[in-house]
Design brief:
The mean pLDDT is 96. The protein is built from eleven helices and eight strands. It is an alpha/beta fold. Strand 6, helix 9 and strand 7 form a beta-alpha-beta unit. It has one domain: Aldolase class I (TIM Barrel). Helix 1 packs across helix 11. The chain is globular. Bound molecules: 1,3-dihydroxyacetonephosphate.
Length: 252
């Protein structure tokens, strides 16, 4: 089964609406033919609408960086899946390590958010990954399994078919320290194995992205590993030429 690669740009807390619009206008001509890889952009909430306008009529997907699990209500500061879908999002990132580290995200809130995403027709991009401390203590496997069981344990196989996972080792995020293709490949195989046990045949359709200091010069080696189906890109997605080069590596 061949899965079409997906490359997603997580802009985190960067770019105002006008900066985002200017960036997308610069990026589009560099991306070339669509078809061999899916491309998704995840701007901060205030820039979603400006980016959606420019992306309309293209094959490029739009993603939120988070969502709340209720569709509406008295929840000051929160953004719902219903709102994301209404501005044109087809995807939403859930359980990013920065949400887990700084904003109290747990496996339980991940599970609720995944349900809210599907309920609103959004494809969740669910992140999992171990910290340096956990890796050095030999706890990589149990950390990943706990995150998968906790966040996705109650998902139906039918919904899981469209799921996207992202393996993001915390020690590789924003540090310039990328996981070697071997280390990433091992984690991706472990995740694929869990998916097969949990969702059987549907597991083969689920894309597992690698995230953590992906750059134009290491993207090709990472994407050539069989269980790595693309990337979730932070820093290198903020510059049009480097993001376009990473998308080109995924198409190659
Ligand atoms: P960097 O590519 O900046 O390491 O960030 C990875 C990431 O967190 C993407 O979600």
């Amino acid at each position: 089964m061949s899965r079409r690669p997906l490359v997603a740009a997580n802009w985190k807390m960067y770019k105002t609406p006008s900066e985002a619009a200017e960036f997308v206008r610069e990026l589009l001509p560099l991306l070339g033919e669509s078809g061999r890889a899916d491309v998704v952009l995840a701007p901060p909430f205030p820039a979603l609408e400006a980016v959606a306008r420019i992306l309309s009529g293209t094959q490029i997907g739009l993603s939120g960086q988070d969502l709340y699990w209720e569709d509406e209500g008295a929840f000051t500061g929160q953004v719902s899946g219903r709102m994301l879908a209404a501005v044109g999002c087809g995807y939403v990132i859930i359980g990013h390590s920065e949400r887990r580290q700084f904003f109290g995200e747990t496996d339980e809130t991940v599970a609720r958010k995944v349900d809210a995403a599907y309920r609103n027709g959004l494809t969740p991009i669910v992140c999992a990954g171990e910290t340096l401390e956990q890796r050095e203590a030999g706890e990589t496997e149990c950390t990943l399994l706990r995150q998968l069981n906790g966040g996705l344990g109650s998902l139906s196989a039918d919904r899981a078919r469209t799921l996207v996972l992202a393996y993001e080792p915390v020690w590789a995020i924003g540090t310039g320290r990328t996981a070697t293709p071997e280390i990433a490949g091992e984690a991706h195989a472990l995740i694929r194995n869990w998916l097969s046990r949990r969702f059987e045949g549907a597991a083969e359709e689920i894309r597992i992205l690698y995230g953590g200091s992906v750059k134009p010069d290491n993207a090709r080696a990472l994407f050539s590993i069989p269980d790595i189906d693309g990337g979730l890109i932070g820093g290198a997605s903020l510059k049009a030429d480097s993001f376009a080069a990473i998308v080109a590596a995924a198409k190659a």
